[in-house]
Amino acid sequence: MFSRMSQYLTVAIGSMVLFSGALYAQRACLDNFTESGEWSSGKSYKTFVEAKETTYDKAFLAVARELATGGLLGLSSNKEIGVVSAYQENSGKKSTITVIVTESTPGAFRVEATFNLAQGLRTPSAAVRDSLCSAVEPALSESQRTAPGSGSSGIALRVGEKDLPLSVGVGQFRKGGFGPVLVLYFDFGGARAETRSENRRPSIAVRSANDPNKAYLLVRCDTKGDRRSIKVGSAGSLLKSGVTGGGDLAPDRDWTIPFSSVPEGRGAWRLTPISDLPAGEYGLWDIQGYGVALFGVD
């Protein structure tokens, strides 16, 4: 929900916006989701739905109420032109969300949401999809929101015969060591993920417009006390990313696990490690947004 949109995490390499981590079903707002641009210059995310069995007034009011309860700033609405807008501020940078309601055909209304991420900020694409869906779907009738097939998730771990959704979040940035041996980590609360598989070669369902090998990394996590950690580089990589702008933070190569990817229909993929995984904690790392979907193997 948009109640989490005002949360964010700032690290030395810049700022990352943290959206709701709830997972999403296979719905029209997901099929219509697109993204463009690069984080260094500002990315744009869009989706839309066609609302039926409703009125313009009901659709517009539902959207306006959703954004009004989301903890956003600068909320503005204009019913005459069908526009609701707001923004999220992070380190002095404004990222805007705009929802437009128009009558596409008699009795049907197109509800389109656009999120423009400010230059230099990052956010997991998977979480943006969910947040934009939460902005437009309140305009849908109950029958549209509970249509058949709405139960399959966007990022999910196969457990038995079911795909169980994985939450997407951004970890807490931490420096370890000192001097020339300074290393960097992302930490996640809790020693164990709630969603787990007994399959040593578990598969993960992913919604991605392109081959997920270019968008995700499968990573292992080290557990210490009440946290899980992913090593993401050293002092040198931090300098390169934060000062020169010439690179990204990414999990160390020896913390990544090769996987195969097989398409399973329009915008859907199945990822599988190429070898058995030892029992432990793992995650699917969003290369652009630094978001991680965590899971465990027993």
Q: Rough shape?
A: globular
Describe the largest sheet.
9 strands, mixed
Rounded average pLDDT:
80
Number of strands: 23
What's the total helix number?
A: 5
Tally of structural domains: 2
Report on this structure.
The protein has 298 residues and is mainly beta. The protein has 2 domains: 2-145, Alpha-D-Glucose-1,6-Bisphosphate, Chain A, domain 4, CATH 3.30.530; 155-297, no CATH class. It is 14% helix and 43% strand. The chain has 5 helices and 23 strands. It has helices spanning 28-31, 56-68, 125-136, 142-145, 235-244; strands at 8-11, 14-17, 34-36, 44-51, 73-78, 83-90, 93-105, 108-116, 121-122, 155-159, 162-165, 168-169, 172-176, 183-189, 196-197, 204-207, 216-224, 227-234, 256-257, 259-263, 268-273, 280-286, 292-297. The strands form 4 sheets. Strands 12, 13, 14, 15, 17, 18, 19, 22 and 23 form a 9-stranded mixed sheet that branches. The radius of gyration is 20 Å and the shape is globular. It starts with 7 loop residues before the first strand and ends with a strand. 41% of the residues are buried. Mean pLDDT is 80; it is low at 1-25, 147-153 and 239-247.
